[in-house]
Design goal:
Shape: rod-shaped
Helix content: over 70%
Largest sheet: none
Oligomer: single chain
Low-confidence stretches: none
Distance between the termini: 132 Å
Radius of gyration: 47 Å
Order of helices and strands: HHHHHHH
C-alpha cells in the first residue's frame, strides 16, 4: 500500500465516523449553529413586525396630534375674536347722547343722514362734527369701532380726525 492509499483510507474512515455521529443523533457544531440561526431569524422577523406596528402607531398619533393642534388653533381664534369684541365695547348711550347733542347744533340733519353716503355740505359738516366729538369723548375707541358706529371705513374716520386736529 502506498502513502496515498493509506491517506485515502484514513479520510474514508473519518467520513464514516462523522456519518455515524450524525446518524446516532449527536448534535454536531453545524446543527447547533443552524438551530441558532433559525432562532435568530425568528427573532428578527418578530422584531421587524414590532417595528412596523410601532411605526403605524406613531403615524396614528401624529395624525391625532395634528388634529388636536388644529382644533386648539381654531378655539384660540374663536376666543380671540370673542375677547376682542368684549375688550372694545361701544358705550352706545354715551355715544348716542353725544351725537344727539351735536345734531342739535345742525338743524335739519338726522342720524340717518350722518350715516348715509350723502355728501351735501350740511350732512358732511354734521358727520365730521359727530365723529370728532365722539373721538374726543372716547379717545380709547379704535378707528374701526368708530367706523362701525358711523358706517364708514376706518380710514375715512382717520382722515376726519386728522383734519380736525
Amino acid at each position: 500500500m502506498s502513502i496515498h492509499q493509506s491517506e485515502l483510507i484514513r479520510q474514508q474512515e473519518a467520513w464514516k465516523a462523522a456519518r455515524a455521529r450524525l446518524a446516532t443523533g449527536k448534535p454536531s457544531r453545524i446543527q447547533a449553529l443552524e438551530a441558532e440561526l433559525g432562532e435568530a431569524r425568528r427573532q428578527l422577523s418578530q422584531a421587524k413586525a414590532d417595528v412596523v406596528r410601532v411605526l403605524s402607531e406613531v403615524e396614528v398619533l401624529k395624525h391625532r396630534l395634528r388634529n388636536r393642534e388644529a382644533t386648539i388653533k381654531r378655539i384660540r381664534l374663536v376666543r380671540k375674536k370673542r375677547y376682542s369684541r368684549r375688550q372694545a365695547p361701544v358705550a352706545l348711550p354715551d355715544v348716542s347722547a353725544i351725537i344727539a347733542c351735536v345734531l342739535g347744533r345742525h338743524p335739519g340733519v338726522t342720524w340717518e343722514a350722518v350715516q348715509s353716503r350723502k355728501r351735501n355740505a350740511a350732512s358732511v359738516a354734521a358727520r365730521h362734527d359727530c365723529i370728532v366729538a365722539v373721538r374726543k369723548a372716547h379717545p380709547g375707541l379704535s378707528y374701526p369701532s368708530l367706523g362701525k358706529i358711523f358706517r364708514k371705513h376706518h380710514t375715512t374716520i382717520m382722515d376726519v380726525v386728522r383734519a380736525a386736529e
